[in-house]
Write a sequence for this structure.
């Protein structure tokens, strides 16, 4: 059962994409993620079709051409080098990526009816949130959340978990429609920093059954792995000591309102109250 939801690096490929998760491949209805490497002086063209798409540089810079508009993204050296600029593209568009020096780019998607106009977001506009405290401290880059970006359904953010810390904690869920919870399909895509001599990093992720939803996943995750969360209590994500963890979250669902509402696991919700007496991990940086 786990293999359906855990996608080790290289197992979700579909040429030319290094990661290729669509509603069809995942067996759900809304969320998608594709990751493409573009060679120096290379190009990649695609159609958004019935998806809205956020083009997010993971490494390198790129020019995103949509119709007669060119958006130049400065990008970044790696996901651990802070937030990046990005472009939102609506449905029914042909998009061409051109990269002078090459790079890797995430295409975060959601299946929608109707969408918003093309929008460029500069890196300094990305809201940085410090969430949790102590060993639950993490940095959240809210580049594609409802308050940050107008969109149809997509909700997306990046999380940096310093080595030895826990994130996506307390475990939480969003698989019921209620006043306090949204129904959202979620993708986690991981990049794990290596050791001082390039030793491969690792961490762990847990997903467990919620009422009416049977799932049981506890995986050692590595660089460029992905985990699908169709339902269930998910978290924690644990960064092994010595290895910083990054993950990209992409979510979408059937709710008429685009909102991220969650329920904490009842056995772990009390942990939030302990953060008031702890300092945020000094390795993290928030808004200046």
């Amino acid at each position: 059962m786990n293999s359906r939801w855990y996608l080790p690096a290289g197992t979700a490929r579909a040429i030319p994409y290094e990661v290729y998760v669509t509603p069809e491949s995942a067996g759900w209805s809304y969320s998608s993620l594709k990751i493409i490497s573009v060679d120096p002086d290379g190009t990649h063209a695609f159609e958004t079709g019935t998806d809205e798409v956020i083009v997010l540089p993971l490494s390198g810079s790129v020019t995103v051409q949509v119709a007669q508009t060119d958006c130049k993204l400065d990008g970044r050296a790696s996901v651990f080098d802070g937030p990046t600029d990005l472009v939102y593209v609506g449905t029914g568009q042909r998009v061409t990526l051109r990269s002078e020096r090459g790079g890797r780019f995430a295409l975060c998607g959601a299946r929608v009816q109707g969408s918003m106009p093309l929008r460029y977001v500069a890196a300094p506009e990305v809201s940085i949130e410090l969430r949790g405290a102590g060993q639950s401290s993490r940095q959240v880059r809210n580049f594609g959340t409802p308050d940050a970006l107008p969109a149809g359904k997509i909700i997306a953010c990046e999380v940096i978990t310093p080595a030895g810390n826990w994130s996506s904690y307390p475990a939480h869920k969003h698989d019921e429609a209620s006043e306090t919870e949204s129904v959202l399909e979620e993708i986690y895509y991981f990049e794990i920093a290596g050791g001082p001599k390039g030793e491969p990093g690792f961490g762990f992720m847990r997903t467990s059954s919620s009422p009416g939803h049977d799932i049981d996943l506890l995986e050692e995750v590595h660089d460029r792995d992905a985990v699908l969360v169709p339902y269930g209590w998910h978290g924690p994500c644990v960064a092994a000591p010595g290895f910083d963890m990054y993950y990209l979250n992409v979510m979408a669902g059937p709710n008429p309102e685009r909102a991220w509402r969650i329920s904490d696991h009842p056995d772990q919700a009390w942990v939030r109250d302990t953060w008031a007496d702890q300092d945020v991990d000094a390795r993290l940086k928030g808004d200046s």
Notes: The first helix runs from residue 2 to 5. Helices lie at 2-5, 23-26, 271-274.
